[in-house]
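User: Fold this; tokens only.

Assistant: Input:
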Amino acid sequence: MKILINSIILLCTFSSCQSKTDTKKFTSETTKKSVKDDLKYDTSVQTAHIFVALCDNKYQGIVPVPEKIGNGQDPANNLYWGAMYGVKTYFKNSKDWKLVKAYKLNDTVLERLIFKHKTKDFYLIADAYDGKEIQKTTEDFLYSSSGQQKDTLNIDNKTIGINGNANLVAYIGHDGLMDFQLKDDFKNEDQKKRDAIILACYSKHYFRPFLEDANINPLVWTSNLMAPEAYILHDALSGYLAKESNTEIQNRAATAYSKYQKCSLRAAKNLLVTDW
């Protein structure tokens, strides 16, 4: 039964990455940025902030997936969150991470998870955005990447950095930039270089124009259609925590993708690329 479920999910994931040809174009008007340079946090504690746009048949320009995993208002069963290879399920089942806290943040971020690595002083903050808010998910990721949106979080009697105060930021989900246009400028404002992972179809092509002035280090992004599943992020983070090079981190991500998607490592490396 698990094999059958896996096959269905993989098929659905590939399908969801294909943008509809009749998708309505949206343009950003104004987005509230939250720059909090005055907030103090423990810079000795590393953090990764993950922005997940929940898969949504109704509000995203995707080829529909089964209703249960394509409801962008239901994190528990969503393809990119509560499903077998979703961020919540995969990291909860990992031997390397411990779930510290889970809660609803607001009507946009339907669930926030805080994971602590079991052997490193490293926290992972993962936010599940309502699927209809994919444009805001994308903008929050881009603002954080450029240091225009910063915040902190109190956990375990520590104050840690999130958004643009995180060491690494990542986006997971449908590539909404296929469907809407953004006017805002995501130019870096603090001269800090952040590491980034973008798991969405054709993410290098669509995200690069917005990130060229953001001063990021692209660890892993994509050259084609793909399944943005959590094992890629999980294994890339293992290399990141080991302070490996971009190429070594890319290799970990590609190896995981090759294993779960049953494709050649060469094909996976051509899909999951690194650097500019």
